[in-house]
Amino acid sequence: MDKLFVFNGSSTLFDSDKSGLRHLSKVFGHEGFEADHIKRYDSEKNKMPWGLSEIAKSFNDVDCNKVEIESKKFVLDSLREDAKEFVSFLKNEGFYVAFVSSDLIEILDEVKEVLGLDFVSGNVLERVDGKFTGELEKKVDRYDRLDKIAEIVKENSLGIDDVFIVGSSVTAVPSKKIGKFVSFNSNNISIDVISDFVVSGGLFEIKKCLSIHIYKFENVEEIKKKIILGGVSNFHVIADFDGTLTKGFVGGEKSPSIIAELRNGDYLDEDYQKRAHALFDKYHPYEVDDSITVLEKKAKMEEWWKTHFDLLIEKGLCLEDVKKVSHSGRVKLREGIEEFLGFLRDNNIPLIIMSASGIGDVIPMYLKEKGLMSKNVHVISNFYEWDEEGLAIGVKEPVVHSGNKDETTLESLPICEDLKIRKNVLLLGNGINDLDMIKGFDYDNLLSVGFLDEKREDRLEVFKAGYNVVVTDNGSLDFVNDFLSGFENSY
Ligand SMILES: [Mg+2]
Fold first, then answer.
1. What is the CA(484)–ligand 1 centre distance, in A?
2. Which residues contact 108 (CB under 8 A, 6 or more apart)?
3. Are both 152 and 266 inside the same structural domain?
4. pLDDT value for 441
5. Do the domain assignments include residue 223?
6. Distance of CA 42 from the midpoint of ligand 1 (Å)
């Protein structure tokens, strides 16, 4: 097992305002017991675990078979309608799925069977001759739940990043220290503020958290708040293009950058493909090696880009090829891009796309084709000079490559003056060097989001240290869109 997902507490999986334990206690306990117990429980639960042995007493002398039958009925009536589908989604994603709760094990066992869970842990009542005695044989309160999860984590040497814990109530909170904690429909602000993610709605809403990694949560919340408070008129966005606004992977295959599409497709002759690939094989390892010095990387990237431009011009790159690349359909935009670009357009927020693409001319063309180019979008990239026949004859200076985005100046843009007063910035990138896009800009608040799809294991630590938020596994722009929606809510 290398990923663990835990439903911690009944209300994560049951669409009921009562736990199964409460429900059964009402069915089998003497009159008024459940109501008294709940009153006391509600006043005590925020301080400490309370009431399990008390509620166990309501099962004294009750037939075990009857409880099993009622448990099955409760599960059938109360499971969230999307529970089955969501659990099979998690299993497909490779998660080991556990459910720990202070509910009765009879209920948990039934859920395990219905949903195909890997592990459950819950309270066990003592049985004698087919009847319950009203004593607990095994108690599972909030701390026992924490211990159980910790045990699984330890046995499988999982890191905090490999564990997702979903909870709706205060009793799930202690488990927050051993994984990413999702506050799910808790409607409780004191739980929400200490959670890594706050989700309301159906279980599939949790999906978007699975690929988002926030490492310094308090920091991120603080930055988000400051930027939102500053309003849209003090805000702009800087984004890389390939692998940031476009997907890292499409159908399990590495998604091509614009230049990779040109290199791999049938646009120029075979000799071009061969030589371009040889250049890629020689230089790309430097591009994704975060251990070499910036200077070393810069020199290599500059060498690569210039040699490649010369090659493209030698091979007769023409405007028609650029159009074809734009049309190819293989370069795919990241999920959530329409909402993202739509928000920026509607609020007239400048988006600076800074791309080291080998043919920057494709970017505005491509966005225009998708109906996503608008006047607030500015592209800084490598643009060709074309002759009257549409043949590439040169590249406009300065060359933008993946190692020199810090030297790329905004001064050339007409929007430059406007940007200077928009001192709150959202930066999106998919390489550690993309963080350099902000270098030299005198910002007040910066929120940086890194998309990490390639060589995740090797690069996660570096990304974590550099970006405020890291989105992995070809994740969507949901985190960014959620953040932007904060502007609307603050009007
Ligand atoms: Mg990129």
1. 22
2. 99, 101, 120, 121, 122
3. no
4. 86
5. no
6. 52
**Residue where a domain stops, chosen among 193, 208, 223:** 208
Expressed in angstroms and rounded, the spacing between residue 340 Cα and the centre of ligand 1 is 18
Q: What's the domain range around 386? A: 233-489
User: Distance from the CA of 374 to the center of ligand 1, in angstroms?
Assistant: 21
Domain total for the chain? Answer: 2
CA of 243 relative to ligand 1 center, distance in Å: 5
pLDDT tens, residue by residue, 35-52: 776 777 777 777 766 678
Instruction: Say whether 71 sits in a helix, a strand or coil.
Output: helix
- How many angstroms does the Cα of residue 7 sit away from the middle of ligand 1? 36
Highest mean pLDDT among 30-34, 210-214, 305-309: 305-309
- Is residue 213 in a domain? no
**pLDDT tens per residue across span 66-111:** 999 999 999 999 999 999 999 999 999 899 999 999 899 999 999 9
Q: Average the pLDDT over 394-414 and give the result.
A: 76
Cα-to-centroid distance, 244 and ligand 1 (Å)? 6
Query: Do 458 and 409 share a domain, yes or no?
Result: yes
Residues 173 and 239 in one domain: no
Query: Is pLDDT above 80 for 24?
Result: yes
| Mean pLDDT confidence for 444-453 | 94
Cβ(305)–Cβ(360) under 8 Å? no
User: Do 156 and 288 sit in the same domain of this protein?
Assistant: no
In CATH, what number is assigned to the domain containing residue 463? 3.40.50.1000
248 with 198, same domain?
Answer: no
> How much is the pTM?
0.73
CA of 478 to the centre of ligand 1 (A): 19
Neighbours of ion ligand 1 (CB under 5 A): 240, 242-243, 430
Q: Phi first, then psi: give them for residue 379, nearest 5 degrees.
A: -110, 125
Distance CA 128, CA 117 (A): 29
Supply the pLDDT for residue 99. Answer: 97
Q: Are residues 460 and 337 in the same domain?
A: yes
| Lookup result for tokens 């097992």 | 1
Q: How far is the CA of 240 from the centre of ligand 1 (A)?
A: 6
Round to the nearest angstrom and report the end-to-end CA distance of the chain: 46
CA 134 – CA 64 distance, rounded (Å): 11
Classify residue 227: in a domain, yes or no. Answer: no
How far apart are alpha carbons 439 and 408 in whole angstroms? 9
Same domain, 316 and 420: yes
Decide if 221 is inside a domain: no
Q: Which amino acid is at 320?
A: E
- Residues 257, 193 within the same domain: no
Answer with the one of 174, 208, 242 that is the final residue of a domain: 208
- The average confidence (pLDDT) of the chain is 88
| CB of 174 closer than 8 Å to CB of 188 | no
